[in-house]
Amino acid sequence: MSCKGVTPNVVTYNTVIDNLCKDSRLHQALHLFDEMRAQGVRPIVVSCACLLDGLCKKGKLNEAIKIFTELDDIVVYNIIIDGLCEAGKLEDATNIFSKQFSRGLQSDCKTDTTLIKGLCKKGKLTQARQLLGKMEQHGCYPNDVTYNILIRGFLCNNEVTPALHLIDVMTGRGFSPDADNTSSLRDLLSNEQTEKSVKEWLQTNMKH
Questions:
Q1: How far apart (Å, rounded) are the C-alpha atoms in residues 1 and 156?
Q2: Rounded mean pLDDT, 42-58
Q3: Spatial separation of the C-alpha atoms in residues 36 and 41, rounded to whole Å
Q4: Phi/psi at 3 (nearest 5 deg)?
Q5: I need a surface site. Which of 54, 93, 174, 202 has the fewest CB within 10 A?
Q6: 133: Cβ contacts below 8 Å, ≥ 6 apart
Q7: pTM for the full model?
C-alpha cells in the first residue's frame, strides 16, 4: 500500500480495511491488516472490530480469534463472543467471557446479553438466569433486550412461571415485553391447557 515513500497511517489503513469488509473482500482486508502490522502500525479497536465482525459473519472464527489477541478491548470481546455463540461454540464463548475479567476488563450490557442469548439457544436457562443475577454485581444493568431474550428462552421451553416473574421485574424497572413475547403471552391466554394461575396473571397484566 505504501507508495512514493509515503507510509499510510492507522486512519488510512482503517478506512481501506473497513471498505473492503463492507464489500465482503475479507481476504484482501486480512492481507492489509497483516501489512499494517508489518509496517509497525499498531491496530486500533476500529481496525480490529470491522475485520473481526466480517470474519465472524463468514464463520472464519479461527482467523478472528488470532486477531482478537491483538487488543484487550470490550468491543472486540463482544464481537468474538457473539460470533462463537452464533456458531454454537458456547463453551469457547464462556471461556472468553471469563478471560476478560482476568485481563482487567469490565463487561458491558451487550457482552452479558450476548452470552445470555447463547445460553438460551442451548437451553441452558439456569445458567442464563444466574448470569442475569450476576450482572448488577459488577455494575452492569440489564436492559429491555436482556430481559426479553431471557423471557423468550423460558417461554420457548414452556417454563412460564419464571418468564412471568421476569416480566414483573422488567416492568417494575420501566421496560415492557417486546412484540414476540407479547404474542406468545396472548397465545397462552387463549390456550385451554394453560394453568388457571397463569391465565389469571395474564388477564390482570395484559389489559391491552
A1: 51
A2: 76
A3: 5
A4: -155, 150
A5: 174
A6: none
A7: 0.78
